[in-house]
């Protein structure tokens, strides 16, 4: 998909970008014309005053920010509105509202009905951030349409400004309810859908690439390379978890051999906040920028994060997982969950609960 807005990749078509911007504008105008009148809170959001989102039932509610990282950036609705007005004037009339999310990497703002702006939360070098956002966009384009499940598509990259020091991105909005709000744990149909998504992702050609240690904090390569982080997590979790038991479990998991399996394309972060659910079925997948080659077992984390035992076994059957691959999936889920449990215990209780729930299921 071509890019529009403040920044375009070299060699992109100006005419194509202009047409795409016009198309987005026409679609969003139709959605705006059909929308019901704004309530008082939404009117405040439209003016850039305060922040709001909607809960699973569609009710407007105030969103609250809590710092999760020592180097976390503050992004206000006013800042987002100013940046959108300056860099994307075609979206000037659209309502902008913060979306409450358990995500730990980006602050999410909805622009009108069809777009989502993602602002990196942690302070970083601007050029390195831009390169990462461009890498995310390439990954999103590669995944789009490769399965029957909707995934976000890149629309634009915005530039720093208005007191926000980093580039930021805009992508299409995917409707649905996150698994944090509609738990699919007992749904065998959801397990079938998730297996289908994983299989479809694995079928994407790696083009000869192998795991490079980037993306999802290095998950997907050698389990033993995470020893230091796991020991840190165990040391910080004495007040939360049965550390002695978990230490023994990691000692066994870290030794699991890779066998002869080759790297395949993986999503890399199939957790509650990144999957959308509707009536117990998979309705969409978010946060697709980490798509890349890795251990085939990496996306099996979804079995341990999202599913109870019976649906989990159904997913294993659908993917034809052998014992070794299945245990490595457990190991990757263990490593991710262990960090989430203590790191976010105060600042992001949803993520912390995910960590504790995942291990209790393993």
Description:
This protein is α+β, with helices and mostly antiparallel strands. It has two domains: 14-174, Phosphorylase Kinase, domain 1, CATH 3.30.200; 188-361, Aminoglycoside 3'-phosphotransferase, Chain: A, domain 2. It has eleven helices and twelve strands. The chain has helices spanning 14-34, 40-47, 77-87, 126-143, 188-202, 227-236, 243-253, 301-306, 309-319, 323-343, 349-361, and strands at 52-54, 60-62, 96-99, 106-111, 115-120, 154-158, 168-172, 177-178, 264-266, 275-278, 281-285, 292-294. The strands form four sheets. The chain has a five-stranded antiparallel sheet. A three-stranded antiparallel sheet has the order 8-10-11, with helices on one face. A hairpin with a 3-residue loop joins strand 4 and strand 5. Helix 6 packs across helix 10 and helix 10 packs antiparallel against helix 11. The longest helix is centred in the N-terminal third of the chain and has 21 residues, at 14-34. 41% of the residues are buried.
Question: Layout of helices and strands, plus pairs?
Answer:
Elements: H1 14-34, H2 40-47, E1 52-54, E2 60-62, H3 77-87, E3 96-99, E4 106-111, E5 115-120, H4 126-143, E6 154-158, E7 168-172, E8 177-178, H5 188-202, H6 227-236, H7 243-253, E9 264-266, E10 275-278, E11 281-285, E12 292-294, H8 301-306, H9 309-319, H10 323-343, H11 349-361
Antiparallel strand pairs: 1-2, 3-4, 4-5, 5-7, 6-7, 8-10, 9-12, 10-11
Helix pairs in contact: 5-9, 6-7, 6-10, 10-11
